[in-house]
Specification:
mainly alpha
Length: 128
């Protein structure tokens, strides 16, 4: 393997792992308030779900970054290396954006359900 390919792969991994970490931490920090509202202020439940979402986000994205490394033509020169990194990082950013919208969609559904007024028709669980 040539040195250009090794440097290119290293740059791809460093950039995508850093971006994935930053996006995950941003979503985790700023999404807490939405999740907390969805769980009616139950901080323990909201924090638990928020953490599980973060772990799932990291697993999916780091897995994708790892698997996606192999795809494509190995760069043989500097220009090909730059194009390789730009293309790969671009695809990873699109996946990160997709994951963000998927999570936000689900959080919005949870908030909408949490804000829905009680109708009084809910089935009460009998305890004996």
């Amino acid at each position: 393997m040539n040195i250009t390919a090794i440097i290119t792969y290293a740059l791809y991994i460093i950039i995508t792992v850093a971006l994935t970490y930053w996006v995950g931490k941003t979503l985790y920090t700023n999404g807490r308030v939405f999740i907390l509202e969805s769980f009616h202020g139950n901080e323990e439940m909201a924090d638990s779900v928020n953490h599980l979402l973060l772990v799932g986000f990291y697993l999916v994205n780091f897995g994708f970054v790892s698997l996606f490394l192999k795809f494509g033509v190995k760069p043989m020169g500097t220009v090909e290396g730059i194009e390789y990194v730009a293309t790969k990082v671009g695809v990873v950013l699109i996946v990160l954006g997709g994951m963000h919208f998927f999570n936000m969609f689900n959080i919005a559904k949870m908030r909408k359900k949490a804000k829905r007024p009680k109708t009084g028709n809910e089935i009460a669980v009998a305890t004996h």
